[in-house]
Amino acid sequence: MTAGPASGTLPDTQVRAMFDRIAGVYDRMNSVMTAGMHHGWRERAADLARVGPGAQALDVATGTGDLAIAMARRGADVTGVDFAAAMLEVARAKDQRIDFRLGDALELPYGDGEFDAVTVGFGARNFADLDRGLREMARVTRPGGRVVVLEITTPQKPPLSWFFRLWFDRAVPLLGRLAADSEAYVYLPSSVRRFPGPEELGGRMAAAGLEDVRWIVTAGGIIALHAGTRRG
């Protein structure tokens, strides 16, 4: 990525190095932290992308590729991009049908309107410039195509808000220490806290060139799925 870090983030070089370090434990940690529910959330995101046989789809910040794979199961021709090479190695080992390649979320190496759907799952909060990343996602989506953002959000109402703070601020960093990378799992809670809430994110997606932006908040207020349509 080329832009400087937003307030409260790490520099891109540190974020990239962090994800390269944790690539080998990333999937297991996701399953532990979400009790395995992250797979279902990605399936819902793939449904919102509305892809089928012959559709061209792009998964941005694809990580270890689970959302890209979910769209491929629906028959789409999928490309996954990420800036962490070690994460892509894990993704390629899972599914060789998908074109996983290094890519910059803030400067996607594709022309305008190349894809029927563009998604990001649990990666938008790592964009150094969220608005620029959303504009890039919209730019490479064809008019009438779908942009989907799946992210963790901060619940506002107790008792879940109390549990969320306890889990993310105390338990997740402890799990990170057990996984031998405390920095990564201290970064995770801070990245969630600074990420915009569902309504603000919906407005920023609209400002990026999307219309009919709607969102679903699920898992008791912890997960938000946003989808919008590229303006013609």
List the keywords.
232 residues, alpha/beta, Rossmann fold, 7-stranded mixed sheet, globular, disordered N terminus
Description:
- With 232 residues, the chain is α/β, with parallel strands linked by helices.
- It has a single domain (12-230), classed as Rossmann fold (3-Layer(aba) Sandwich).
- 45% of the residues lie in helices and 22% in strands.
- It has 8 helices and 7 strands.
- It has helices at residues 12-34, 38-49, 66-73, 85-94, 130-139, 160-178, 182-194, 198-207, and strands spanning 56-60, 77-82, 99-102, 115-121, 141-152, 210-218, 223-230.
- Strands 3-2-1-4-5-7-6 form a 7-stranded mixed beta sheet, with helices on both faces.
- Strand 6 (210-218) and strand 7 form a beta hairpin.
- Helix 2 (38-49) crosses helix 3 (66-73) and helix 6 packs antiparallel against helix 7 (182-194).
- Residues 1-8 have low confidence and may be disordered.
